[in-house]
């Protein structure tokens, strides 16, 4: 199926294919070395890449100019660039990797907070995938993420080693065959310990942003996208602009709303629909003392997302009146934690080849545990909840 916003999707997932000039300054040497290693000097592929991007001191040229110089069609130039770039392995970086499970088909790790899953492109490092690539170098496998965690989120992350395993695991995660459980530190009107509630609200993207990058200091610079819970869409808004705050204000004014608070919006609307179906089940595991930040009670909440939308747990928690601590987009600021208080605690999937059930778990990191302790919240023991 064709993606509705192909360029936007590519900009997030494979920017090196959409705008190669954007990586030329930071990854050119790595790319050219891999091209020569794989295809050899003077090969048709090397000639296309050298003329297109100016490798080896040659001036860069557009696809049509390269095609004319080599006596081929411009389509051949474009497909060659695409094929060559995708064949270059991820940059492998040595680093600490907390392996939870590993077999011939998959690798499960405990992702630390403030580390992006993916680098800005295939030719730069600074992400968990680069460390995983180094870990798998001896096997020749390339790590394939089958789901995502925000830069600030910690916990269980599943990587496939083969294309078939990625397809199988991705099907489990998108088709309801997997079970995910997250721990959240929240604040809001006090709910009784053990109380359960479900949020069933579609989610749509109405803001602009960029993927996380690894800054020179090693600190992650994370996404600043905005998403909203949807309830209805007025016919007056054919498309809600991703860039204009005024258009968002006009949109919600049409619904009779004075403003559109983050995470609790009544509606949003995009060109081709009402957003994506999203459902999250919550259970209060513990209630602590009143927190000073927003005036509500601190709570440890277990979230079980039944769908996998971007920012789903964070948005649904805010919509339910229990926003996450440390969440700069939808939650409540706190001096106790420098990130959103969200941890991917458990994941249950089936092994792609054998069908055996895998129960993966990652203990909350130290910053999460310290914040919980400061709020008088006891984290669940192994095997609980």
From TrEMBL:
<dbReference type="GO" id="GO:0009982">
    <property type="term" value="F:pseudouridine synthase activity"/>
</dbReference>
<dbReference type="GO" id="GO:0000455">
    <property type="term" value="P:enzyme-directed rRNA pseudouridine synthesis"/>
</dbReference>
<protein>
    <recommendedName>
        <fullName>Pseudouridine synthase RsuA/RluA-like domain-containing protein</fullName>
    </recommendedName>
</protein>
<dbReference type="Pfam" id="PF00849">
    <property type="entry name" value="PseudoU_synth_2"/>
</dbReference>
<dbReference type="InterPro" id="IPR020103">
    <property type="entry name" value="PsdUridine_synth_cat_dom_sf"/>
</dbReference>
<dbReference type="InterPro" id="IPR006224">
    <property type="entry name" value="PsdUridine_synth_RluA-like_CS"/>
</dbReference>
<dbReference type="GO" id="GO:0003723">
    <property type="term" value="F:RNA binding"/>
</dbReference>
<feature type="domain" description="Pseudouridine synthase RsuA/RluA-like">
    <location>
        <begin position="106"/>
        <end position="319"/>
    </location>
</feature>
<dbReference type="InterPro" id="IPR050188">
    <property type="entry name" value="RluA_PseudoU_synthase"/>
</dbReference>
<comment type="similarity">
    <text>Belongs to the pseudouridine synthase RluA family.</text>
</comment>
<dbReference type="InterPro" id="IPR006145">
    <property type="entry name" value="PsdUridine_synth_RsuA/RluA"/>
</dbReference>
